[in-house]
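Example 558.
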Amino acid sequence: MIGGSANNAQLADAGAAWWHDAVIYECHLPSFRDGNGDGIGDLDGLVASLDYLGSTLGIDAIWTGPFYRSPLLDQGFDVSDYTDVEPTFGTLDTFDRLICEAHARGLRIIIDYIPNHTSDQHPWFVESRSSLMNPKRHWYVWRDPAPGGGVPNNWMSEAGGSVWEWDDQTGQYYLHSHLKEQPDLNWRTADVRTTMLDVLRFWLGRGADGIRIDVAHMLMKDPGFRDNPSAPEGNDNMFDLQHPDFGSQLHIHDRRHPDTHEVLAQIRAVVDEYPGTVTIAEIEAMPWEDWARYYGSAMDGMHLPFPFRLLETPWRADLLRFELEALYESMPDGGWPTIALGNHDRVRLATRLGAAQARVAAVMLLTLAATPCLLYGDELGLIEQAVPIARQRDYFARATGGVTRDPTRTPMPWNGGPNAGFSTAGESDLWLPVAHNADDVNVDVQLTNPASFLSMYRDLLRLRTASSALRRGKIAFLPGTSSRDSVLAYLRTSPIDQKIVALNLVDAPTAVRVPSAGTVAISTTARGAGETVGPVLRLAANEAVVIDVPKELRHEDH
Ligand code: GLC
Ligand code: CA
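Predicted structure in complex with calcium ion:
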C-alpha cells in the first residue's frame, strides 16, 4: 500500500509530539480546490495544493474535512459509509496518493472522525429502522413516545426543533442531535464501539496522521433522558450560529455525560496503536476546567481539545487575557493547547473583526504558546460572502430557517482567473459562489504584494518556525494599558531566544511599557523590521508587533 503506517513511524522518529511545533490548516475540502471541473473541491484539488500549503505558506499539517461517502446534506458530516471515499471527492486511491504526496513534503494529514451520528442513508440506519427486532435496532437511539404521547423529552436540536423524529413504521422516535437526516449512533451499544473503533484503524492504518473528532462532547447522553432545564434570559451567544430553539435551554442532559470521557479514552487507546498520531476534539465552548477534562484524567484523553471559548470571547484585551490565563491555568501537567480564531462553523475572522484587526489576530494566533489552527482563506483575509438562498448548501439553514454557515465556506480564491482559479466548471455549477472581491483577495495577487495578508502570514509562519521561544517557550502576560480594551502583550521565553508580542486591539494609537527594549521582527503596519523599540513601546492604531529581545538587552528572564 502507498503511504502506509511506515510513513507515520518515520515521521514520528523526527520528534515525538510533532504537533507541539506544528501549525494546522483547516482546508474544508468542498471549498478548497476542484480537481476535476465539477465545481466541488476534492482530494485531487488538495493534492494539487500541497506545494502552496507546504513551501509557499509554510504550514505543517492539514485538517481535511470529511470525504467519506455521504448524501452531502451537511457538507459530508452525514456519513453513509465510513470506510470509503465519496465519489464527489475522489477514491481510496486518491486518499492514498494524498498521504503519500503530503508525507513526501513533510506535511501531515488529519482527517475527520464523525462518531456521533451517521447519515439516515447509512445501511446501519436503514436496517435499524426496518423493525423493532432488527439486530441493529440498538445501534441508534430509539425511544417510545412520552406517556401522554409526543416526543420522549424536550431536547432541542442544533439545527432547530426537537431532536426526536417519529418513525411510523416501528412506532418509535429516533434521536438526531443535528439534522433529522443525521441519526445519533448509540455508543452505549458494544457493537457500535467495536465497529467504530475499527473505522479508526482503517484510516490510521492507511497513513492518516491524526483525527479531528466531530462533536466529541456529544457521544454520551444522560441514560435517563431527563429534560434539559430552560435557559435563563439573555443566554444568547453572539457568535453562536445555532438555531434559536437550541439556545432556549441549557444542554446538560443531551451531551457531555461523564461517560463521554471513557469513550474518548477508548478512542485514544486505538489512536495510540499508531505512533505519532494526534487527536483533536471538537468540543463546544465550556468553562476551562471542564474543557481541561478532555485531556483525560491520566492524560489518556485528547491531545488537543478545541478552544471554542476563545472564539467566543469578545475582542477586548482584558477579556482575552482573562480567558487565556484561565486556559493556561486549567491545563493539566503535560497538556498542550491548540488555538483557533476561525472555523468553518463560525463567522469569518476578517468579517467579525475587520481587516485591520484580522491582521492583529493573525499575530496572536501564531505567537501564543499553542498549536495554531488556521482556517483556509483566513491567510488572505477572506471575508464572508452573502450566498443567495437558491445557492445555499447548509441544510441547517435551509431546513429550518436558521442561520446559514455558507458565507464562511465560499471557495478558496487562488488567482484572478475564472472562478478565482477554484474550478473550471461554469459559475452556476460551483459548490458555492466565489467571494465578490476575489480579484483583489487571491493567492497569486497577494504573493506579489509584500504588504498583503498572505505575505504577513508567510512572514509570521517563518518567524514562528525559526524561533524556539514562539514555538515552545514559556508565556507570561504583561500588564497592558489602563484602557481595558486596548493592548494585549506577552513575553515568550526559551533558553535560546526571547520575544515580546504586543497587540493593539483598537483603532487608536497607544503606548505600553514592556520589560525590555528590542528590535521589531514583524509589525502589521508599515513599520519596518529591525527598528529598535521599547521599553516604552508606541503602537500605531491596529498595530501588532513581535519584538526580538537580544540577550544583552534582557532586563529580566521570566
Ligand atoms: C460539527 C461540524 C459541523 C457539523 C456538525 C454536525 O459541529 O463542525 O460543521 O454541522 O458537527 O456534524
Ligand atoms: Ca471536484
